[in-house]
Amino acid sequence: MNKKTQQWVELDKQYLWHPFTQMADWLAGEPVIIERGDGFYLIDTEGRRYIDGISSLWCNVHGHRVKFIDDAIQAQLDEVAHSTLLGLGQTRAIELARRLIGIAPKGLAKVFYSDSGATAVEIALKVAYQYWHNLGQEQRTKFIALSEAYHGDTVGAVSVGGMELFHGIYKPLLFETLFVPAPHPYRFNGTTGQCTQYSLEAMESLLKANTGQIVGIIIEPLVQGAAGMIVHPKGFLKNVEQLARKYDVLLIVDEVATGFGRTGKMFACEHEDVRPDLMCLAKGISGGYLPLAATLATQKIFDAFLGRVEDFKTFYHGHTYTGNALACAAGLASLDLFEKNHVLEKLPAKTDLIFVALEEIRTLPFVGDVRQCGMMAGIELVQNKNTKEPFEYKQTIGAKICAAMRSKGVMLRPLGDVIVLMPAVGMDKTTLTELLAIVCDTIQNDLPGIIKGL
Ligand SMILES: Cc1ncc(COP(=O)(O)O)c(C=O)c1O
């Protein structure tokens, strides 16, 4: 470790508290400190280069230090960095809202900005609840969500979260949510069709049993990322939409992870022609440059909040940095790059590369399942391939294999024992091929040794 790195490590350990991190392990370890980015690579204080295989936690779209986005932010800096949307308009925020509505699923008409995925979800939940309230249906207080759902870490988002490890401890603080088993074919004892049916029937029976009390259904469309890249069977999302319509509850889609090309289309909803009432966006919205999020709503929802001040229908919610001009400028530049670089058109060739590479490791011992939807993929490692028995939590196999990949120049972060691959949608094929080769090689050649050494 060079002297510079040593200093950064010391200061990090002295002052920082890292997210989702057991800090005792961190303090005992030798953390990597990132200093620069270069395209799809991150460079640390030792000058080592790593392929950013999870696009800086699922948000980077076109790479790091992309001149076109850098210039757009610089140009915006020459105008204004930030001014509030409370009582004022702002040119970049207006322009981006128009562009977002232009590409969003039909029916979405209004954009409410915030600054992270969790706040986008929080806003969707509050808008949905108040929508019914404003219509005189105050008895609607419950949401339906999927088991293993992840919608962020603020208390409202945690209330609709279904991951025991992350959410269990906070139960006494949370509002009531009805959970439906997520359709997870690998962990379901039966066919994929039966798996879908099982979840849909559970959802329908909850809707029936709680008629008039449900605000809406919140769902991560197609892929439950944080749960370990659970890919829903085809048609499930469309069926959920139909149930929402049949029982007259709102459909909230959380496209925070799936949005901006990750699933192969701009939004996951497009695969099944789903038209949500509310849609949550964040992560890739600014190209992965700056904290920005948006909750999109239909005209019908928006209209339910109109009235005289003394009607108390106003949505009393806002964040200081709502619609930040620099972030919106980055968002606009990112959307321009989608068009200029034909990002979506180039995706099938890249998702094929991932598919072919992962098919080759599917049969390896300890590889329980391989799941992929577009540029999102998960490789689930298990102790016993036949019984699907997982490794013990404390064995941290996922973390160990990712550490081995890191030493070969690939930066990944696992979800338990699921190795997550989430490269930037704009990643070139050469870098993607290199990333896949290192991931597959490590699972094939290093994993058996790691397991032996447990
Ligand atoms: C589906 C989904 N919703 C919400 C969030 C929360 O986003 P943020 O971390 O920006 O609050 C995430 C983050 O991974 C996510 O995957």
Give a quick summary of the entry.
The protein has 454 residues and is of the alpha/beta class. Helix content is 39%, strand content 16%. The chain has a seven-stranded mixed beta sheet with strand order 4-12-11-10-7-5-6, with helices on both faces.
Unreliable stretches covering 5 or more consecutive residues = none
Overall geometry:
globular
Which small-molecule ligands are present, each listed once?
Answer: pyridoxal-5'-phosphate
What is the CA–CA distance across the termini? 27 Å
Task: Report the average pLDDT across residues.
Answer: 97
How many structural domains does the protein architecture include? Answer: 2
CATH superfamily name of the largest domain?
Answer: Type I PLP-dependent aspartate aminotransferase-like (Major domain)
Structural class comes to alpha/beta
Output the radius of gyration. 22 Å
Helix content: 25-40%
CATH topology of the largest domain, anyone?
Answer: Aspartate Aminotransferase, domain 2
Largest sheet strand order: 4-12-11-10-7-5-6
What would you say the CATH architecture of the largest domain is? 3-Layer(aba) Sandwich
Please tally the β strands and state the result. Answer: 16
For the biggest sheet, the summary is:
7 strands, mixed
Counting H and I runs of at least 4 residues, what is the number of helices?
15
